[in-house]
Amino acid sequence: MTEPRLLDMTRDTLRRKHYSLRTEESYLRWIRQYILFNGKRHPREMGAPELEAFLTHLAIHRKVSASTQNQALSAILFLYRHVLHSDSLDLTVQAVRAKRPKRVPTVLGREEVQRLLACMTGVPLLQAKLLYGSGLRLMECLRLRVKDLDFDRRQIAVRDTKGSQDRTTMLPDEVAQELLSHLKRVRLIHENDLANGHGRVWLPFALAEKYPLTDREWIWQWVFPSNRLSIDPQSSGVMRRHHASDWSLQRSIHSAARLALIQKRVSPHTLRHSFATHLLENGYDIRTVRELLGHKDVKTTMIYTHVLNRGGMAVRSPLDTGLEPTPSRTLREHQPGWLVIHASPN
């Protein structure tokens, strides 16, 4: 009976600190695996040796990536520090946070982006255009609310961002009219939900309790709602219409990449990478691009300079410059002591 009680305490702490639902599910999963790996012992009875053994098991036997191993470590450290308040417990482990490898992002060319979009239709096409045209992350796109779209100023307010930092990005002219038509269809769905006694949407920071009718207002509805109603996992027994699922867009983009014969590993995040790279290729300042992407540090944005056709990467291969020497600088001219006698024209 200890494990469910401990996990409930962890869930309550995560929600009190306003962690996202995805982080909550991930942390609870790793904590559960940590306990099961050590024979269902209570975490208070364990310490650095058990934690190190678990992390080593993940790396050697399960062959998880560095980011996955770090996520598991963060979850367990959260348990000890914020749930059990075991600050005095020695959690110094030899297998500290694994060093994540530096990888160059996959970027599509402009022609490849056009081919990809040409193989998509419907709502997934509109979502993909926003990922590429506005530089949104996948979940940022799906969590857009009606009030976040400013059609007059052609701006999108991105609220629920990574790191909980709001930002503003552009709303492309090409998708503005499509979005307006899409919102008309979404409003009909919302009005039908209201007529059937539903129409409530999840609101952050207990706004629904502070302003009881706010969760039924049109401006707070999702831009991309789900096709069906479901029980809110964070509110017992409340029927809501959540936003569209991420796997649907992921599947659509993967299928479109195959149809477009793109020989690259394409995901929704590839369109965000392409957005940043193409802006830099067009000569926009890297700090401006950083603000549009929502990066905390410009060093994160600098990774896109590695895929540009400028700087060091603009050096042409000697195979492409030609193998024949130029007439003005022949091999003989470079040899010491070589005397070149020019014949007189007469």
- Tell me what the CATH architecture of the largest domain is: Orthogonal Bundle
Number of DSSP E strands: 5
Distance separating the two termini: 109 Å
Main pleated-sheet profile: 3 strands, antiparallel
CATH topology of the largest domain: hpI Integrase, Chain A
Helix/strand structural class: mainly alpha
Task: Provide the domain count.
Answer: 2
Give a description of the structure:
This protein has 346 residues and is mainly alpha-helical. It has 15 helices and five strands. The protein folds into two domains: 82 residues, Orthogonal Bundle (DNA polymerase, domain 1), CATH 1.10.150; 210 residues, Orthogonal Bundle (hpI Integrase, Chain A). 48% of the residues lie in helices and 4% in strands. It has a three-stranded antiparallel beta sheet. The chain has a two-stranded antiparallel sheet with strand order 4-5. β1 and β2 form a beta hairpin. 24% of the residues are buried. The C terminus is likely disordered.
